[in-house]
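**Tokenised fold:**
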Amino acid sequence: MQITTEFIQNLRQDYRNASLEEKDTEANPVVQFAKWFENAVQANIYEPNVMTLATANAQGRPSARILLLKGFDEKGFVFYTNYQSHKADHLAENPQAALLFFWSELERQVRIEGSVTRVEETLSDQYFQSRPRGSQIGAAASPQSRVIPNREFLEEQVNVLTRQFEDQDVPRPIEWGGYRLKPDYMEFWQGRSSRLHDRIAYRLMDNGIWVKNRLAP
């Protein structure tokens, strides 16, 4: 099969599953997100907490990657990573980021933008200890985003740490922990027929009130 420009241009899907009206959305976008997230879980979507995290460095050069949401509440949306990773370097230079959730089976996406800070160390400790032991060892073994000579180097680091922490808890590495994105903009997108999609956007005002508007698709 030859993939041509014409083939790609003809890839399209008409969205018809649902609609989104302002009257059907919550005043608080975090509450609205909770409803949609629950819908995604109930729909048995594979890893409904998968999201894209977009960051940019001090010069404005962007970067995006897929990772997992590990919690959310009124304070923000939480994810975990290595504090020496590429994304962490960006966040140290420019602590603004965006999240994107896309639930294709529901023909929905959610965009979230805001400022990012590290979570409390106690929260990072709690989450790290809840992870499978193999993931704990992997986090400690990997110098994330740094150049390594080969796969064997990484596997040897895992073997060393597995022996080192045999019959004892794996401590959370000081260079590993969580971030929390505090949103000031959230947008809910529902696919509609003929690309006339529904978009309801929330923006946080200086007085702490969320203002909701419909956007053109």
